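User: My collaborator sent over this chain with a note saying "see what the structure looks like." That's all I know about it. Can you take a look?
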Amino acid sequence: MTDPIIEFDHVSKQFGDKVVFENANFTIQEGNIVGIVGPSGMGKSTLFRLILGTRKPTNGTVRIAGELSHFRKKVGFASQEYSFYPELHVEENLRYFGKMYNIPTKTLEPRITKLLDLVQLSHARKTKAKDISGGMKRRLDLALALISDPKILILDEPTTGLDVVLRDAIWNVISTIHKEGTTILVASHDLTEIQHYCKSVLFVLDRKIHTQKEMEKIAKTRSKHLEDVFRRVVDVS
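Assistant: Without extra context I'll predict from the sequence alone. Here is the result:
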């Protein structure tokens, strides 16, 4: 079994009197691909910020690759909103983000070429980001999230607004990234995607973060299939 790369030990987070979640205990093994499921406003964004290191827990500890802090460069993040600069060329965006991480030029330039090939944007490297298609923009954001060569990649609704063909293209890229050893967390309201591509699932619900095994027990005690619990969790009728 691989070592845990993400560890939450009795983690609670609240803002003033509002408790987002409490006493969260879970681990994610290195190399896993995990679906994050939960209704809007239940704390998925806060969970991501704790893993990114941009928020600190109110109680408990968060460890990333065994470290309690200084792990920001180990985590890449692609949000629902585009991160790139529309007036910059595709490769200029990657170069700009790479310099933000202080990546030396001799390391950065080969990495840009590798990432453009990975996300199938080599042919568009000299095209302004504003002029590429919606699916290509999503793939560019994936490349930007990978520019620091992170151990963990967080994707927040990576296929939102895309048709079936473009969704498949994005998941093909995600699968390739995963095969290279990156641990991936994917938030999605598409249950079919989560069940098909993810090896395990975390459920963010009612101030708790439940593992898949915990939710399977809940489903069993209520004589329901896990998919029915899925649908209740994400408010799908």
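A starting point for your reply to your collaborator: The two ends are 38 Å apart (CA to CA).
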